[in-house]
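So, can you check this one?
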Amino acid sequence: MSWRVIWIGVLFLGLLSCDSFVLKKENKEDIVKDRLNKLNWHDVEQPPFFNSCKNRAEEELEICFQQTITQHIQEHLAKQSFSVNTAIEDTIWIPLLITKDSEILLQDFELPDIIISEIPNLKDLLKEGISTLPEVAPAHTRSTPVTALYKLPLVIRIN
């Protein structure tokens, strides 16, 4: 008699716990949205790059990207003539936003007072130089194009 009670109890508990064994059917779109929300969009797996950097090794892409921008801006500024009253030797950090749509945008930043007084149109010259950069491929995280912010140093030496 006691075995019968135990078996009935086990059967009863088994029937009550069946709800926890039912698999929940999830929508594929919900799963993708959930995983995209969990991604850290600030970590870039593949940096943006220019076509001239395309055949470089993965670890060289970011260096090539930075060198291409730096060289392009230096060449653009070298075409300008500057007349200053005080010698300038300073480094400014240029914040560039590379969008997932392959746009390069100069973000707002502060210039030292000496540069503002001696080269008041420097920001305009930088915007002009950046607008003439070649086409860029956006940064990627898990094969998805993402927007990335880069701060590149620009050394200014004018005697």
